[in-house]
Amino acid sequence: MDERKILTGITAEAFVSDADKWALDKLKKVPLLPIVVKKFYEVGFDRWFYCMNMSMSVRCGPNQYPTLHRILQESCKVLDMPEPELYLSSNPFPNAFAGGVERPYITLRSGIVNNLTDEQLYHVIGHELGHIKANHVLYFSVGAVLYALLDLLGKRTLGASDLASYALILAFYEWSRQAEFSADRAGLLVCQSLDISLDAEIALTAGPNRLSGEANREAFMDQARAYQDADMLDQVGKAVLFALWGKTFTHPMPVHRAQELERWVLSGAYERILSGDFPKAESVA
């Protein structure tokens, strides 16, 4: 593609959604949160996660998987942020994640590298960089061991008998889902093509398969619109299913993510950012 536009001085405020801010504010108001975060640091989970990831993955660099390292470098340049460490791990299930509160890193599973093109990887790496830039990593890391932390604090984690624990768990899940929408926007800002971002979403939703060349972007978006515009009976059904299971999902439904990204582009916000109209750090304001 043409040379990517560099978004000098861009802050996370440019792509973090209002729903993400609302859910995070709601999470921070749960009285138990400061105690859980304090215990997270006391136990040393952040250091443990970093060491475990480093021991089970290959760190990418100029002389180690240089293609992935180059994509990371270019992506960081677009979002005007320091480079985190980048790792590649063996796992056929396509996924990627950001970690490291004190020492940020991104880990790509081999399945995601095999299943996506280089251009689509810009979206994925940009997505994970968005999590880091928006300071999502602390709460994601705490959420990953939330039940263990509550156990260490002597809080019951099964059922709803301990309302403080239950409220914290639900608030974590709600914020986690909203944070994904913000990170999707960062992925689009890096790859700078809605088609590429949507194709990456399709590839991750369908998974590795020998018929991947038959994937149809427009058909997928029609599917996403049909899901969102369901009739009243189906809307009630979706609400019931969410109450039963969806509220504990860490990620939104893929079709919902695709349509929300499209809506963000249609709002004009994406084009305004690419034209240089975005919140900037004070040093470049």
Protein traits:
globular, 14 helices, mainly alpha, 4-stranded mixed sheet, 4 strands, 285 residues
Shape designation: globular
- Summarize model confidence as the mean pLDDT: 89
Termini, distance in Å? Answer: 29 Å
Tally of separate domains = 1
Please summarize the sheet with the most strands.
4 strands, mixed
Radius of gyration: 19 Å
Alpha-beta content class: mainly alpha
Q: How are the strands ordered across the major sheet?
A: 1-2-4-3
Q: What portion of the residues fall into strands of 2 or more residues?
A: 5-15%
Question: What is the count of DSSP helices, taking H or I runs of 4+ residues?
Answer: 14
Number-wise, the strands total: 4
Q: Low-confidence parts, pLDDT < 50 over ≥5 residues?
A: 236-240, 242-247
Tell me roughly what share of residues is in helical segments.
55-70%
What's the order of the H and E elements?
Answer: HHHEHEEEHHHHHHHHHH
Give the helices and strands, then pairings:
Elements: H1 18-28, H2 33-43, H3 45-56, E1 58-59, H4 66-79, E2 85-89, E3 96-99, E4 105-109, H5 110-115, H6 118-133, H7 137-144, H8 146-152, H9 163-191, H10 194-206, H11 217-228, H12 232-244, H13 254-266, H14 269-274
Parallel strand pairs: 2-4
Antiparallel strand pairs: 1-2, 3-4
Helix pairs in contact: 1-9, 4-6, 4-9, 6-9, 6-10, 9-13, 10-13, 11-13
